[in-house]
Amino acid sequence: MPRIITITANPTYDFAVDAPKVEPNRKLRCVNPESHPGGGGLNVARAAARLGADTLAVFTTGGLYGAALKGLVAEEHVPMHAISVAGETRIAFHVRDAQSGDEYRFNLPGSELSPLERQALLDAVSEETRAGDVVVGSGSLPPMRGAKAQETFWADAARIAKSKGARFALDSISGLNAALEEGVFLLRHNEHEYQQLSGRALDWPAGISEFAESLVAQGRAERVVITHGGDGSVMAAGGGTVFAPVFPVRAHSAVGAGDSFVAGLIVALMRGDVDASALRYASACAAATRLSSGTSLFRKEDVERLFSSDS
Question: So where are the chain's domains?
Answer without folding.
Answer: 4-11+38-85+111-307
